[in-house]
Amino acid sequence: MPWPAGISPEAAVGPAAKLGDGVAVAPGAVIHDGARIGGGSSIGAGSVVHSGVELGDGCTVEDLVVLGKRPRLRAGSSAEFGAELGSLVIDDGVTICCGAIVYAGARIGAGAIIGDQAQVRERSVVGPGTVVGRASAVDFAAIVGARVRIQTDVYVTAHTVVEDDVFLAPGVVTTNDQTMSRHSRGDALRGPTFRRGCRVGARAVVLPGIEIGEEALVAAGAVVTRDVPARQVVMGVPARVVREVADEELFERWH
Question: Which range has the worst mean pLDDT, 31-45, 181-195, 222-236?
Fold first, then answer.
């Protein structure tokens, strides 16, 4: 059950943290100076909210969550960001489940759910109503649209673009580096692009820079090495077009 409204005497809340009306803070939680917690939100046992986090109204942060973590990068990492990442902004009605980590400089849209043990990295965006499943990772500078369904154990690599209403099944893997770390420093990484309403089956692998077209379908276990046209079904290793998505499968028929 959620901790009742009020701050547990066993929680640590910085004197310069700002908490709205009706906030609940469970035992062992830590809220640093400079954090803002919206009215009616709850912070679970053992969770940490760092300075610069802006949590909206009516949010649920479950146990052992870390919000506003700053990245720890190797020298020369392509994720280098300069001195200022900015705030982690979490809009109203978001749920962050047990053990999840959401980094400074990210943005989570209203009503989104970040699943148990999931990770959302710096400079990434997760749109409203989107679900990021258990143990999935949204890497730095990835853009995920609204109402996306990212299932369990999915890896969304850096610089990926996922448009609205996309479905990524369990275990989907995306990639962004054709050279596998043999590129020159400063060369751009190229994540895939998933156009509106496309669907990708379990354990599919999508190579760097690939575009999956609007309403396309990638079969389970496929390895996608070239762009997939809109509304086409591909399968195999490497993936090849086998048919067109039927009218009755189109997104508009189901919503």
Answer: 181-195
**Amino acid found at 253:** R
User: How many other C-beta atoms lie within 10 A of the C-beta of residue 185?
Assistant: 7
CA distance 126 to 146: 7
What string of DSSP letters covers 160-200? -EE-TT-EE-TT-EE---TTSS-SPTTPPP---EE-TT-EE
The residue type at 79: A
Phi-psi region at 138: left, alpha or beta (left = phi > 0; alpha = psi -120 to 50) = beta
Token representation of residue 98: 């047990």
Report whether 87 contacts 67 (CB < 8 A). Answer: no
Q: What is d(CA 51, CA 17) in angstroms, rounded to the nearest whole number?
A: 8
Distance, in Å, from the CA atom of 134 to the CA atom of 41, rounded to the nearest integer, reads 22
Q: Are the C-beta atoms of 211 and 191 separated by less than 8 Å?
A: no
Handedness of CA 72, 132, 5, 26 (dihedral sign): negative
Q: Token pair of 61, please?
A: 């942060």
pTM, entire model: 0.93
User: Which residue did the predictor score with more confidence, 95 or 73?
Assistant: 95
Q: What distance in Å separates the CA atoms of residue 70 and residue 243, rounded to the nearest whole number?
A: 45
| Rounded (to 5) percent helix, strand, coil in the chain | 5, 30, 65
